[in-house]
Fold these 3 entries.
Entry 1:
Amino acid sequence: MCITYFWIFLFFLVSHSLFSFLPLWSSLGEEWLKKDGCGNLRSRMIMKDFKEIRHRIEYVFLMGILLWVWMVSLKTALLAADILGFFVFSVLRIRRLVVMDNLKQAFPEKSQKELLGIARRTYQNFAKMIFEYMRFPIMKREDVLSLFSVKGIEHIDWALKQGKGGVLIAGHYGNWELMGAYLAQLGYPTYFLVGEQHNKLVDHMMNHYRIIMGIRIIHMGVAVRGVIKALRHNEFVALLSDQNGGPEGVFVDFFGRPASTPQGPAIFALKTGAPVLFSYPVRFPHGKQRIYCECLHFDHLHGVSPENVHEVTQAYTRLLEKAIRAHPDHWFWMHRRWKFSP
């Protein structure tokens, strides 16, 4: 078993090192082309080849890890994820400074030791989420259903009875992918709004795995039309709305600091009258997970206005913060959430 873990770590370490150097090789190649007097067309063609090679190497390494994850039990995969998360946090230290800075800002009352513990477990939980996601192709319906229980399922049923679909808001919290798969396997018509990954091979694989689980896909390029169409067909659209919304986002309070947040979920709900649901999954030590679902009511709001968008966004952001405070190691602290200021 130790030898197996060694190979997993070797895959990760070599791939990380290789991926770190490939952009450098690409930059050096571009500089060489400029100095050699080559035209821009030739430079772009060679840079495109560098990018394609990098993406193929990434995909090959990913497939190597996938094969191992498929071969072992879920229990073994999660144990390996614990070790891998510890290794990435303690040795590779990828985005560790960002994580620690975010945690210090969010929990100024906690000691350094407490924050380090939360950070380490964050990496471990994220590794578990990835390994569980990788197992989608080999998971049967009963496997998915056996992993979860739900508190608040009646809110989802109520939303369906309204006939306007539902805006299902979640965060990068726990295993959000598996939560969506669970709802789809229960028979709830569930769409994911997804952006395109830089690596198209990986992007295709990720969406294929979602489709295997019964999740339907709306691509970001047709977001407005796709989301509104799904809601009008009384279907759920799951939106992750906890990352930086950029200068065009709406600023709401998040851990006592203004955070730019995407306006999309609020606009879709206000425009269509669809119920707004907030859901998040919690992982327990024995391997089971529980989904908590709440319904937010905005019957008093009419039309899309800056004030209404702010109220809706602040309401579900407040619920997200509450969930994070209860289980801080479940959230994706690697992201620069407070990148923009009002």
Note: The chain has twelve helices and nine strands.
Entry 2:
Amino acid sequence: MSTYDLLGIGIGPFNLSLAALLDKTKSAKFLFLDDKPEFTWHKELMFKDATMQTSFLKDLVTPVDPTSPYTFLNYLVEKGQFYHFLNTGRKSINRVEFEDYCKWVSKQLGASLKFGCRVQKVVPTSEGYTVYHSQGSHQAKALCVASGPVPNIPECAKPHLGANVFHAKSAQAAKMNLEGKRLVVVGGGQTGVELFRNALKGQWGRPQSVRLLTGRENLRPLDEGPFTNELFTPEFVSEFYQLPQSSKDEFSERLLLASDGNTPEYLQDFYNDLYLERFYFQQMPEAGIYPMRWMTNLVSMESGAYQLKVDNRLQQKEESFSADIVVLATGFRSQIPQFLQDIEPEISKDFMGRPVIGSDYRLQMNSGLSPIYMMNFSRHGHGVADPQTSLMSWRSAVIANKVLGNESYQTSSTESKFVHYHNPIQEPSL
């Protein structure tokens, strides 16, 4: 059995980016595995009006290798869409466009990606790891895990999960029937707002009512200011990584809307929809947005419906909402995958039990095990950009250089030019 220099687990945009960079060098033997039959990306949430929150230039490879054959611009040229795309005047693209671009790249990479392989177990060996999966096994000197986060489910909802209570990132979301039903969406981030808006448009049938509950003060816009976008640079990630963990945690909380807000243009369009429906067309189902609400309990009724117990933190009182279908747009959380259970005792963790990830995205372990690189497991270590696509190509380049053993890609971080979180000037003491 031959040994791969790197075996990737999970084929989403993050590992696809790494595969594209490694393929360009032609100097490493690599393979990526995924249990899906083909490349898909958030297919449950692929609404026609869903857009990316980053520039199309922040694709799989362009920021570190603009001459790559796997750029979004080359995709447009190959598809015969370049000039038509320019005529749209857009800086960002729809999610359906981004997914199609990723599918195009995955087809170019061919045999380097193996779909329909469910990884079951990873066992350390003297030369690296043996990865057991549904179609056999492979040997690798190093791994890169990008298996994705898991849905964050409120405790009170867990006993009720099923056909009528489910997370937004589930199969039920794509096939729900809302005709004549009462829908409650829990969560006021981008996903929750997209679900709310598309339900009002009748995408899943005409509902009786649609309500959105959010713990936030309102439907908050994403902070897209130029100085906020300095947080999504290699320079900031390098500065952030060196901070004490307590400072990182506090800073990340303050930066919530830099990564988890709603696209301002989307909110504006949605408000315009509501305005026209309310004052002119008057064809919309009963609808309402309820800020500062926290779901504290979920109770199933004899009728088959549900009652949500909600804490109104503004008025400091309990409220109840009735629903036939409850969709949990409650985000995601990182979790060490089950297939790493044999290695988990060796993983170094911080005071909150989170895995310690090195500045080069290598999982820190107590023993001298071979490298395991982790993507989207280090928001607590690398900052708000970690789960986003903004810096995925730079992170992939950092890992690719480690795998290749040379600086094939420029990744060194220079000092921030405008915003300094440490003092770059050593002034003499008075």
Note: The chain has twelve helices and 19 strands.
Entry 3:
Amino acid sequence: MVFRSSGGIPPNNRDICIYPRQRELSRISTLIPNCDPMTYALFFPCGERGFRINQSYSELQFYVHCLSLRKDIFNPILYGGKLMQQYVVDSYVKVEGNRLNFIRHNQRALRVESYFGLADHINALATKLALDQVFHSFCPRVSLGVQERCNRTFRMSCR
């Protein structure tokens, strides 16, 4: 799914609409731990809480744990069929959306100012081709630290 706003920036957050009985519509953020049990009641019949911010594990690790196959423990998510597919897609969108929000709000920490020459070049090409100005938000490598880890593993194997 691709979202675009007037400025070309994808939306910062996604909200879930709740229609409580006898009350007006309310919205909750997908970051609230009760979002998954409210959305997927068949998978969480006892209302187990979902991912919480400020934990020692990442959101991706939480969802990998939820989808893992464990010996002698029944996992209803794995038997959900098409609902499981929807859960996986929804979890993926949450994880990637939060990663993009982190990148968008931490451009200074990611040292993006070194890419400004590239952004100027892209905007000059867009102007030359009579296109709209291009929104740019630079993303780091997908796997941070992979090269360093490979080098460290190689050095350790040579000892």
Note: DSSP finds five helices and two strands in the chain.
